[in-house]
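My main concern about presentation is that the manuscript never shows what a single data entry looks like. The format is easy to grasp once an entry is in front of the reader. For illustration, here is how one protein appears when written out as sequence plus structure tokens:
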Amino acid sequence: MFQNKVYEEGQIIEGIITSIKKYGAFFSFEGGYIGLLHISEISSNFVNNIHNFFKIGDTVRVVVKKVDNSTKFLSVSLKDLPIEENPYKDILPSKKVTSYLKEIDFSKLEKQLPLMIKKELEKEEKL
């Protein structure tokens, strides 16, 4: 019934959490799509433990950031939801963490993160 479902960037959709890792939550969406909510896309503030927010089986509204229709993979975000629809908008930053983070240069990590996530996903597929 939903075989021809196509998603677009910026679209707000609901998905079911199927797996939770320390770096993010994996979702199942209509039409056979799967997706990743990276921990950095939960809030603009630091999130230490993703397990404090979700459990497997939760239905969560997210906004689509990137779409790969050939693999049916979505990158999604919570922090980009309209503020009135974001249940995690009130996450407060830790003063200890934010002062520490200001001293770190994350530019190299930012460039390598997509490759790191891809490698982790490939490892999981082999299991």
